[in-house]
Specification:
Layout: H1 2-31, H2 43-46, H3 49-52, H4 54-69, H5 72-77, H6 79-107, H7 115-137, H8 145-171, H9 178-184, H10 195-207, H11 226-231, H12 248-254, H13 273-284, H14 301-309, H15 326-332, E1 337-341, E2 349-353, H16 361-365, E3 374-378, H17 389-392, E4 400-402, E5 424-426, H18 434-443, E6 449-451, H19 459-468, E7 473-475, H20 483-486, E8 492-493, E9 498-499, E10 503-504, E11 507-508, E12 515-519, E13 539-540, E14 544-551, E15 561-567, E16 574-577, H21 607-610, E17 613-616, E18 620-641, E19 652-658, E20 665-670, E21 682-703, E22 720-728
Parallel strand pairs: 2-3, 3-4, 4-5, 5-6, 6-7, 9-15
Antiparallel strand pairs: 1-2, 8-11, 10-13, 12-14, 14-15, 16-18, 17-22, 18-21, 18-22, 19-20, 19-21
């Protein structure tokens, strides 16, 4: 017993010595912080701060509870409780000290700047010093129970302040009540929404501003203001207007999750595909801060995303009609039509129709059952004709109607004048004329907003309509017709780019009545001599690179679209993935290589992150199994190449074949060409050709680059191999 007591006393004396020495060291570091440089081996110690800080929080709270709720008489009757209190005080002081030292080391790392960092650092350090002093004087005669209670209570309050600032550093301002604040935010309508204020900034506030604000500007980057976004940070400008792929913001977002420069960092809530796409679209359209959603072309993807997000603010008080029965609403919902309330507990309904192939007048006739409750109807891109407008006119409380890119003409618009509650009407992409629009505006007194993009109305006619009907906001895009707006979008493939034996070339374009000129020989098409695309006229029997441009009178021709069409004659019956995928890029597992889902690398699609199967520090081994033997002479695969983010082609590619998966023979091996400089990302087609071999099993082995060459700033690192599709011929 005496030996154990002696050992305990020695441990207490040692702990008290550590507390005293550590406190002196902390004060020294605080006074001479500007001269400190944390060695690399101490960095992991600093990063343990988030783990360590929980100990003083618990111990100080326990200490406060004892001081407030345990009486002096209880202490006198239980000598062991006095010793426990002493040890608890000592542990609280030591844990606070180590947490403060670790936090100080962490704050010296690059990127931790701002007032919030300073406030958290000093409040935490003062707490540690205060607890050390209180422990040292707790046996003094003047340290009465009242002084002890007051001191521990003040320490607990200081702990709350330090913890609050720490939580704000980690999770951002108002993290605790953010969901409530967001729920209470005033909803905006599509007509009032501003792209940056109401679509972009909320993403930055949720996913970026906790680390990049005026009080904590990690990397000297402030993303909580327009000025900060334009200024950029220590790594340079954040945005390159008109070039999302070349903007640092998107480059960091698209880095592999395990890359130390990926943003948001691993462990933080990542951006969704829709959020990434929205940022890409905003930057591609010049990263303007004042563009209104209503001023965008309805065919613009950014407008379409906004139309799903913003609706007319439901004023449930103005709907005095009875709700439709639940059974009727459920009956009206099916695969190509949705009917739902515009707001919780509201009797008003919103209806949307999705399939042009399934559309008919009967689809509208069925909605007559809720004609009183229907206040919003979206028929965009459906084959709505003038005769259907008579049915629509029966929806007596309809205040929002979307007829974009339907088949109506100006002759039928008179029926819409019979709708007294109609306020917002979209007619973009239709064949309406000035006479029909004028007649509508003369007889429809309640209309507030009219969309007339791409209708064929001349600018002079639109100007006159605006002058004659100043009470109606007419949005036609004419005010934005400059060089950028007038340039046509790229032509696209209107079908899968992969075929087995043959396929007719199908090209498409979102704008009607464009002329698409193309080539198949690798040359760039022009507006005069290159063949004009006609559907069903070009039969492809082998893989081709299609180059195409779109032209239309009054528009600038599109940029060059380079479209790859692939042939894959022998898709396997079963695909076995024999090696481990990188956890950040699992894609669709073994199905990835023949699922027809093409990955990309730029700002035009979030698919780059979803469709690439990744291999890092281990080979890609894929076994292809066929029920019947097939003659194979070539296997190709698409790989992503982006040297700046250590994504390289395979160092070697092997093809094995045979009728027994355990006895395959090597058919061929190649070493694909490697990049030699930094540059823009691109997709490469890596293929291996061998003498025709007939078999049931083929194994493809691709070895990632083991060490990045010296010309790269990341030399020596293992490269990441990203593959999305394979083609067997």
């Amino acid at each position: 017993m005496t030996h154990n007591r002696s050992l305990s006393n020695k441990l207490l004396i040692l702990a008290e010595g550590i507390l005293f020495a550590g406190t002196v060291l902390l004060i020294f570091f605080l006074l001479f912080e500007s001269y400190l440089e944390v060695p690399l081996w101490l960095s992991p110690l600093g990063r343990m701060h988030p783990l360590m800080l929980h100990f003083p929080i618990v111990l100080v709270c326990l200490l406060l509870a004892m001081e407030l709720f345990v009486s002096r008489e209880t202490y006198k009757q239980n000598p062991g409780l006095v010793e426990f209190s002493r040890v608890l005080f000592l542990l609280a002081a030591i844990s606070a000290l180590f947490s403060a030292l670790m936090g100080l080391f962490l704050s010296l790392e690059e990127g931790y700047t701002g007032d919030l960092v300073v406030q958290h650092k000093w409040s935490g350090s003062l707490l540690a010093i205060l607890l050390s002093v209180l422990y040292g004087v707790r046996r003094q005669a003047w340290f009465t129970p009242k002084v002890a209670k007051a001191s521990v209570t003040f320490s607990a309050l200081l702990l709350v302040v330090a913890s609050h600032w720490g939580a704000t550093l980690t999770h951002g301002e108002n993290f605790l009540f953010a969901p409530i604040a967001e729920a209470r935010q005033e909803k905006v309508s599509l007509e009032e929404a501003v792209v940056f204020d109401h679509m972009v900034m909320p993403i930055l506030e949720r996913k970026c501003n906790s680390c990049h604000n005026a009080r904590k500007s990690k990397g000297e980057l402030v993303m909580s203001s327009k000025e900060g976004l334009l200024k950029g940070g220590k790594s340079g400008p954040l945005l390159t207007a008109g070039n999302a792929a070349g903007s640092l913001l998107l480059e960091r977002i698209h880095l592999p999750l395990d890359d130390e420069e990926h943003m948001p960092p691993s462990g933080k809530t990542q951006l969704s595909d829709e959020e990434i796409r929205l940022l890409e679209l905003w930057i591609e359209q010049d990263a303007a801060f004042d563009t209104q959603v209503a001023a965008l072309d309805p065919k613009n993807e950014l407008f379409q995303l906004a139309s799903l997000r913003f609706t007319e603010r439901p004023d449930t008080d103005r709907y005095n009609f009875s709700p439709a029965s639940k059974a009727i609403v459920e009956k009206l919902n099916h695969a190509f039509r949705s009917v739902m309330p515009v707001a919780k507990e509201s009797p008003a309904l919103d209806a949307r129709v999705y399939s042009r192939a399934e559309y008919s007048n009967e689809v509208l006739q069925e909605l007559i059952e809720v004609k009183t409750q229907l206040v919003s109807l979206n028929l965009s891109e459906m084959s709505v004709s003038d005769s259907d407008l008579g049915t629509i006119a029966q929806f007596e409380n309809l205040d929002r109607l979307n007829l974009n890119f339907t088949d109506i003409t100006g002759a039928g618009l008179g029926r819409l004048a019979e709708m007294p509650k109609l306020q917002h009407l979209s007619l973009s992409g239709t064949r309406v004329d000035e006479v029909g629009v004028r007649m509508l505006l003369q007889n429809q007194n309640g209309l507030k907003t009219l969309y007339l993009w791409d209708t064929g109305l001349a600018d002079s006619e639109l100007d006159q309509l605006e002058r004659d009907f100043p009470g109606v906001r007419i949005l036609s895009g004419k005010e934005s017709k400059d060089m950028d707006i007038l340039q046509l979008n790229l032509p696209v493939l209107a079908t899968s780019p992969i075929f087995a034996d043959s396929m007719f070339l199908r090209l498409g374009h979102p704008i009607r009545d464009v002329i698409i000129r193309y080539t198949l020989d690798g040359t760039e098409p022009d507006s005069v001599s290159s063949p004009v695309y006609q559907e069903g006229k070009v039969l492809l029997k082998e893989a081709k690179v299609v180059k195409a441009k779109a032209y239309k009178e009054g528009w600038f021709g599109s940029e060059l679209a380079t479209l790859q069409v692939y042939q894959s004659r022998f898709n396997p019956d079963t695909v076995h993935l024999l090696s481990r995928l990188n956890r950040v890029h699992p894609a669709n597992g073994a199905l990835t290589f023949f699922d027809g889902e093409m990955g990309t690398f730029n700002a035009n699609s979030p698919a780059w992150a979803n469709n690439w199967a990744g291999f890092l520090n281990n080979d890609m081994e894929v076994l292809l199994e066929y029920q019947q033997a097939v003659p194979v002479s070539q296997v190709a695969m698409r790989v992503l190449v982006e040297p700046e983010t250590v994504i390289f082609p395979p160092a070697s590619l092997e093809l094995w074949g045979g009728d027994d998966p355990g006895k395959l023979q090597l058919l061929g091996r190649i070493q694909p060409k490697q990049p030699s400089t930094l540059g823009k990302p691109y997709i490469d087609d890596v293929s291996i050709t061998v003498p025709t071999f007939t078999g049931r099993f083929f194994k493809v082995v691709a070895k990632p680059v083991g060490s990045i060459p010296d010309w790269s700033p990341r030399k020596g690192r293992a490269a990441l191999l990203l593959v999305d599709e394979m083609f067997v011929n």
